Amino acid sequence: DTAVSQTPKYLVTQMGNDKSIKCEQNLGHDTMYWYKQDSKKFLKIMFSYNNKELIINETVPNRFSPKSPDKAHLNLHINSLELGDSAVYFCASSSNLGRVRSDTQYFGPGTRLTVL
Amino acid sequence: DQQVKQNSPSLSVQEGRISILNCDYTNSMFDYFLWYKKYPAEGPTFLISISSIKDKNEDGRFTVFLNKSAKHLSLHIVPSQPGDSAVYFCAASVASYDKVIFGPGTSLSVIP
Fold first, then answer.
1. Is B106 on the interface with A (CB under 8 A)?
2. Contacts with A100 (C-beta within 8 Å, 6 or more apart), sequence order
3. Structural domains of chain A sorted by starting position, each given as residue range(s) with its CATH number in brackets
4. Is the Cβ of A95 closer than 8 Å to some Cβ of chain B?
5. Is B4-111 a CATH 2.60.40.10 domain?
6. pLDDT 10s digit of each residue in chain B, 112 long?
């Protein structure tokens, strides 16, 4: 019974294409996140949504657009993919406004995106 | 601008011995610190946390120590087991922010 799931697990695509990564959590959490782990292994937050409302929007190119149809889903759509977008993307969720003092973040297994 | 640093990319320890993973931070506003553990092809999982009002938190084999004056924290694993082999991420947050800053991780290998 997967708590935070992401699809696909691997994504290989050509430069210039548009792709989406889906994330679902069945923990009943109200806050969801997207992180990017780059080639240097840093985990950096990209976006955070609370009850379908955008809370955090880091300095991310506007080719990246998160969409939250409901509080259990947070999808990431990427337009005009570039070589530098190659990374592992992690979805996560937590049960409050991202304040981890009382609740921690639960991560999905990651999506490895390779742009050729 | 690396606010959370883990200067040792890797560490090898014999089974049964103590593993000590170190983390330094630059932002004095951080008031909550966490350690996450990550196995290959999986997402990070929460391990242990500590508030800045404490200097030690213990959970079974895992203990986190915080030295605020040195802006340093460490994770001790005693005794180390082969199943502890993973990448360990140090992370920090501030009450007024809604985000967690992660370090680059330290890869721990526990040798049987």
1. no
2. A94, B32, B34, B49, B93, B100
3. 4-115 (2.60.40.10)
4. no
5. yes
6. 689 999 999 999 999 999 999 999 999 989 899 999 999 989 999 999 999 999 999 999 999 999 999 999 999 999 999 999 999 999 998 866 667 889 999 999 999 9
